[in-house]
Amino acid sequence: MPTYGNILLRQDENGAFTTARRAPLGFTDGRNEAWLRDLLADNPDLLPIEEVDPSFAPLLPLCTELQTEAGPVDAAFISPTGRLTLVECKLWRNPEARRKVIAQILDYARAVSQWSYADLQRQVATATKREGNVPFEVARELQPDLDEAAFVDATARSLREGRFLLLIAGDGIREGITGMAELITRNAALGLSFGLVEVALYQFGERGLVVQPRVVARTETIERTFVNVREGGTSRLHEVVDDAGSEVEAVSVTEDRAWWEPITRINFDDPEQEAPSYRPRNHVRVSLPYPGVWLTAFRSMGEGVCGVFFTGAKSEARQVLDRLNEEREQILAELPEGADNRRSSGQPGFAIYAQFSDFASDDECREWLAQQLNQFVNALRPRLKAMGH
After folding, report:
1. How far apart are CA 295 and CA 308, in angstroms?
2. Does the reported pTM lie above 0.85?
3. Highest taxon of the source (predicted)?
4. Contact 276, 261 (CB under 8 A)
5. How do the domains of the chain map onto residue ranges?
6. How far apart are CA 275 and CA 263, in angstroms?
7. Residue 198 near residue 170 (C-beta atoms within 8 A)
8. Region 225-387: CATH code
9. pLDDT tens profile 322-374
């Protein structure tokens, strides 16, 4: 966990400094949770969004006290791409408050994920006492040429998928931070991004107040993977994102699960390999015998592309790829032809893709995906198992 020194203010040209006095929230000048909520809502740039998850930036204040079935969200923000950030403000005065706050903000997220865009528009209008399409109007203030239909569709997808950034902001977030961070990381599978932000206050006597936000914990962003799709002599990068930030197709979870169900029942050559598990939406995951890495089979209806790639949590995947790339030529010889790509970082990875138009039917596409998964398992699983011992 990061630590910080004192803040100094230079008083005059002679080099004299004044040391700021730490001004805890909740003790003086009415600086309570409501004060912190309004401070962040009025000054969204205080929240270090780029350090937590830049895909939710920039933060545009939507409203405070957004009413949900689980209770009121302290502050809600939206981005021009329709992504919601929910902020809960807490003073860290007792262990019970620390334990409850994560469950509380998760309940808010689950409640909001049940909303349609019309529900969001209605609740924001109620909170702000404004009429009309308030979320869109807020976003259009930053981007005057923003298309309303596209914004509404993007926001509706984010709501449907529960793709939210949840921030817990407070003062003196120190004791118990390890346990809170672990709880946050375990809940990352919900498709949510989390961050803990300490808002430190320093008083310079009569000269004013300094506000210093600090990110003290966050979920680790899963590295994005790109495959190079070649068509008609041209090429383009197609992004494949596992779990965090994936583009959602216009198909229900039920329909999507039914499409992938035959693949979740395939038998691998390796008798120890577990079957693939469905991950809403548009992909399945195959566990591997090394922590933090896995195989993903995906399909993107919008791009007309499907494929298989090796990925994982950012730090683990990079470490494992460094070791696997020492045997790169041998591994590629064991993988299906064409199983070669470079990730967004330029680092060589292992992936293969195909166009939907290459297949005569969905069954043929699924059979191809199953074959690729089997070969990837055969090539990578023994090596990863050896790494884990």
Report:
1. 7
2. no
3. Bacteria
4. no
5. 8-218, 225-387
6. 8
7. yes
8. 3.30.1460
9. 889 899 999 999 999 888 765 444 456 788 988 888 999 999 999 999 999 99
